[in-house]
Amino acid sequence: MKYGLVPQTVYPESFNSSNSGQVDALVAAKLREDALVLRKTYNKAVKRGASHEEAVAKARTIKEDQMADIYRVLAICAGTPPHPNESFVWEFRDKNNECQRIVTTPLDFARKEVCGYDVCEAIALLHDPRNEPHQLYTVQRLGNVVGGVRQVRYASAEISELKQAAISALRANTPVWFGCDVEQAASSAHGILDVDIFNYHDAFGTSVNMSKTQRLETGDLSMTHAMMLTGVHIVDGKVIRWRVENSWGPEACSKGFWCMSDSWFDANVFQVVVPRTFAPVDLVRLYDNSAAPVNELPPWDPMGALAGKMGSSQSQAMAGMLSQLAAMGFGGGATLSAGGSSSGGTATGSSATSSAASASTAARSGMSGAAATTGRSSGGASARSSRY
Question: How far is the C-alpha of 239 from the C-alpha of 255, rounded, in Å?
């Protein structure tokens, strides 16, 4: 993480960061207007005999002022973010209810207090039944980060391979990031994700029976949201359901968590990101093979819908844009903001010995009374972080 992380109490939500529709529309319109000005400036310079490099340099002088305007709008709405190297104090109670005090910077907090593993060592596994497994894929124009090490790529896999990788990570007490379509067969009021949650046949005498492939091909399904797997319920070697931590805060779902059936995983999950040690060896080799062919999906493909949202929420997009602009020299700096971390249980085999916090969460999700494999909470239920 380039700019760091801070607890939410250090950089709290504002009204506009939680209700960002209006400011989002303003910024989008302003950026479009700025783009027209930059094009006009470049073309005018070229017509006057300037070289391409000279015309670009002229446009960049104007861009600096434009970005200062954007930063000012976002900082007024979301608050000026702390500088990555600026010290802050965080006082909190740990899982044993003991008072703790940390004095650190956003960068050190991210590197030492939050990240338990090198994110560069993670691998993205993709399930897309429209295409062949065990191949590399990317989405055109997805790698839009200046100075990026290499193009964004996914190793395609069977859905069973995604599940096994996730289970292995959870047994090692490592939560798993995953991408899905969260609007399918969901009740946020009850915190349930289940393909059988609504009985349309009894109500209307008809139902939808398309396959995952057909739903993707017709636009009924796409990867639009990211969450964290923090637990899995296994009975006699069979996965029953998963515990999912969302980013909508503790008021949503079941105190910030979903209970997801395994059939919902099959139908609506497309991607998991795990450390390489938990992924199939052959897929890791394929993923790291720079000479391996990479299949390109078009920019509008449903597999690129999540990345195209500029983060998993508009507040993330706002924080992310602040981070980028601060890195360019506007304002005092930038940071990502995340809620405090909490610990869950550890697993042995297909059963888990959970802390009291994990056990109570599992019980609320209907996971008690049988083998539950749990990972630590990602601390993202009240997070403001940037992927933009």
Answer: 23
Instruction: Report d(CA 114, CA 387) in Å as an integer.
Output: 16
Q: Which residues of 274-298 are buried (b: 16+ CB within 10 A; e: fewer)?
A: bbeebbbeebbebbeeeeeeeeebe
In three-state secondary structure terms, 33 is helix
How much is the pLDDT for 3? 86
Residue listed under structure tokens 């980013």 = 247
Average pLDDT over residues 27-52: 96
Instruction: Please give the mean pLDDT across all residues of the chain.
Output: 80
Nearest-angstrom CA–CA distance, 343 and 93: 12
Q: Beta-carbon neighbour count of residue 111 at 10 Å?
A: 14
Mean of the pLDDT values across residues 368-381?
Answer: 37
Is 227 in contact with 182 (CB distance < 8 Å)?
A: yes
Between strands 154-156 and 136-139, the pairing is: antiparallel
The backbone torsions φ and ψ at residue 143, rounded to the nearest 5 degrees and listed phi first, read: -80, 70
Determine how many CB atoms are found less than 10 A away from the CB of residue 58. 18
Is the pLDDT reported for residue 376 higher than 90?
no
Q: CA-CA distance, 166 to 265, in Å (whole number)?
A: 11
Q: Kindly state the average pLDDT of the residues 320-347.
A: 41
Burial letters for 84-103: b for 16+ Cβ neighbours within 10 Å, e otherwise?
Answer: beeebebeeeeeeeeeeeee
* Phi, psi torsion values for 370, nearest 5 degrees: -145, 175
